[in-house]
Amino acid sequence: MKNRVVVTGGGNVSALGNDWSSVRESLLDQKNAVRFMDDWQQYEDLNTRLAAPVTDFTMPPSYTLKKTRSMGRVAKMAVVATENALASAGLTDNPLIKNGLTGVSYGSATGSSDAALEFFNLLERQSMSKVNGTTYLRMMSHTAAINISVCFGTTGRMQTTSSACTAGSQGIGYAFETIQNGVQDVMIAGGAEALCPTQAAVFDTVYAASVKNESPALTPRPFDQNRDGLVLGEGATTLILESRDHAVERGANIIAEVVGYATNTDGKHIVRPNQKMMEQVMTMALDSAGIRTQDIDYVSAHGTGTEHGDIAETQATEQVFGENVPISSLKSYTGHTLGACGAFEAWASIQMMNEGWFAPTLNLTSLDSRCGKLDYIKEAPRTLDAEYLMSNNFAFGGVNTSLIFKKS
After folding, report:
1. Looking at the domain covering 5-407, what would its CATH class be?
2. Ranges of each domain in the chain
3. pTM, whole model, 2 decimals?
4. Among 165, 196, 341, 371, which one carries the catalytic annotation?
5. What share of the chain is helix, strand, coil (3-state, %, to 5)?
């Protein structure tokens, strides 16, 4: 018999705030964190000037230079989010973390860009002047996961995900499967991403980035016919997963149960989403959880605010659930945080489920008629007594994930 898996803690660093009370306030006030990026004015050919940065992040004083020398911004945010998650789970300095039965499953799309620049100097100018012993450690795609392990002393399984927009949700999904199959008792899971203009350029070049530079509060606009693309963000979110028996035995506070997970790939196109495979991953997650479509009370959408993505996702959701499932996109508040989005959206959705309400999609005033027929939460938070929620994410390369959580 497979283990039941529960969530016993969560920690967060985001543009909306670094604790649930701050994030909750922004969601209830319906205020996004998007702003005009003055620093991006130097990039003359970059059309978008919008992002949702974390503006108040600092490392706690306990992190000395010796501790942080191997960390770029993405790893630092991941480590702080993890420290907060362990504290909320009652596992700070607990020997359980170091006993070999606690692992890490964590993702980001990339490491820190400033470290990559040190290597670029070598390639462009044939100079080693900026390269040092920590350059690669800060640049590598698994820098967040490795620094979490070193900081907190985990000696169990290590799973790193670098699948762009599904890195965080795959991190949680793999952690779920690891505990479910009895390989580890506890998993530190989630995702992180640091903001970089190169990421904006990726979407700018394919006309998928918002250019509403004069009105940051009005973008992104997931599902809206007047959308003009996504806005990037940054942050880190960590969940602590445990086997239910392990959590109960140590008297942990259980905040939700992970009951289903699925991931698949389109196998067709590097950037264009595939509706049928989106439908399949949701159905696979339902089968994993052993529940019916009508049991899902809320869907946290990937909802980036891009034309092809919004249409394919919502039509897939309608095909699986029909027209009555409530749905909204948290990216309308935080922008698209790439490797962090799946973890943040899962954590925030669990918090809202436990409080009996869900945030609306911001800036959704005129639904795109090509989107699926669904119960879009808009204009105001929705009071909703939900027992199950589904959190979906879809990435470049046709990587799809679906997680299902149950109220504890």
Report:
1. alpha beta
2. 5-407
3. 0.97
4. 165
5. 40, 20, 40
